[in-house]
Amino acid sequence: MTSPEVVCVGNANVDLFIPHDSMRLGHRERMVVNAPIAFRPGGNALATATVLGKCHVSCGLCSCIGVRGSGQMLQSELDEANVVLHPGMKIDTSSEELKDEHTGLTFVNCNSGSKPSFVTYSGTNAMLNVDKLDMALHEGFFDNAKVLFLGSFGVLPGLDAQELVGFLHRLRERRKGDGGVFVMAGTNLITDSGQSTESIVSSEYVRESFRSVSSELDCFIGNVAEIAQIMRRDVPAPGTKHVERLVGVFSDKYQIPIVGMTLAENGSILSLTSGGSMSTHPGYVLKDDFPEVDRAGVGDAWNAGFIVEMIRQNKPMRDLDYSRMIERANQVAVCSMLDYGTTRLAIKSKIKTVESACKWIEARVDEIAFPNRVV
Known about the structure:
Layout: E1 6-10, E2 13-19, E3 23-25, E4 31-33, E5 38-42, H1 44-54, E6 59-62, E7 65-66, H2 70-80, E8 83-85, E9 90-91, E10 104-110, E11 117-121, H3 130-138, E12 147-151, H4 161-175, E13 182-186, H5 203-214, E14 219-223, H6 224-230, H7 241-254, E15 258-262, E16 268-272, E17 277-281, E18 284-286, H8 298-313, H9 322-335, H10 354-368, E19 369-371
Parallel strand pairs: 1-6, 1-12, 2-10, 6-8, 7-9, 12-13, 13-14, 14-15
Antiparallel strand pairs: 2-5, 3-4, 10-11, 15-16, 16-17, 18-19
Helix pairs in contact: 1-8, 3-4, 4-5, 8-9, 9-10
């Protein structure tokens, strides 16, 4: 059994991108789309894994996808990025029992310069559970993993938070003699404003799931709206002291060693709980010659960039250059805004190492963007 350096666990979808300005009300009040619809692989776990693979990080994936139809499209994308899907996660949707089941699907109503909206059908994502993760654990899939990334763990119907905590305990017990594994999470929350992305469950359920799992995390990454939602606070205005105060209060409450908060084009803040320090990076703005296409998946690209730099540095957690990590994360994130979704990161095929991928990303950012103001 292959055991990669990074394993991503969570959701996998086919994303259908519908440009907002292409929709009009047609005959008999039917909504008509008069522009091409873009189909892209998506979902927090799969998108993050795919970007990691394209940056030549050895990556595996535990997400449930079908073996036919749109599931084949996702498998092709994983193969192209050299991401290993654990065999036990493939769902035979051709069987009589599952003949009406499909790989996860998300409709993305996207509009350049603003937040996209989502409608999601969980599909085979609902079949991801701790039994499948335990199977992968016992088969050695996690044995060489330096990083375990959890994507959208709070809103997957089959992934109970308490059972996930038990799995993380078993994982750490299995790995305690070899330096252990860095457990990192990013999530799409279901907000009170109705911006649901994964399934129809309450915001309180998501908060409870997060509280249950937070004690097992080495790192949590969320955007400013998600962290405000967990804390039941208003989203602070960019560039104010309330932004740093929010991430500081969050870090103090949950005592997660590393907390990252993304602020779209206004950059990122990273709070190191153990040392009480914060690192910031101003982010990037695209140049006029490179118009923004879409922001869906930018957070997944950010997560991947953060992990890429961690793998590149190859140091103990206490010795990592976190300022460099959030800079790299912002670089990968801005590159992802030039196409629909996250996975079309156009790293040249001749690049074969993480180091050379990072150099390509730096050159690409110099070409397409300039630094934004300080957060």
